[in-house]
Amino acid sequence: MSESATRCPICGKGTLADIGYDAAPATQREPEQQPDSRQIDTYTCGHQVIGERLATADGEELDIERRTSDEPAEPLPDPDIS
Asked: Are 37 and 21 in contact, with CB atoms under 8 Å apart?
């Protein structure tokens, strides 16, 4: 990622602080990552930039975590086992 990609595109002063993906309404506390979720870039200046929806966005344009088959995620614990 280039230095200009980490600067706020609105004011040019803030730097990228967080990248999130959220489909939940603003009134809902827990974010949801769904096909309708949009990439939300939050900058230290307080500005937020809303990106494309995950379902329709170009995978090369999104800042997403990519894993290979050699790097599987850890399985969740079985809720039936006490």
From this structure: yes
15 touches 8 (CB < 8 A): yes
Domain residue ranges of the chain, discontinuous segments joined by +:
3-51
Quote the CA–CA distance of 38 and 34 in Å, as a whole number.
Answer: 9
Sequence-distant (≥ 6) Cβ neighbours of residue 62 within 8 angstroms: 39, 51, 52, 54
Query: What string of pLDDT tens digits covers the 82 residues of the chain?
Result: 555 668 999 999 999 998 888 766 556 656 677 777 888 899 999 999 988 787 776 666 666 656 566 666 677 777 776 5
pTM more than 0.90:
no
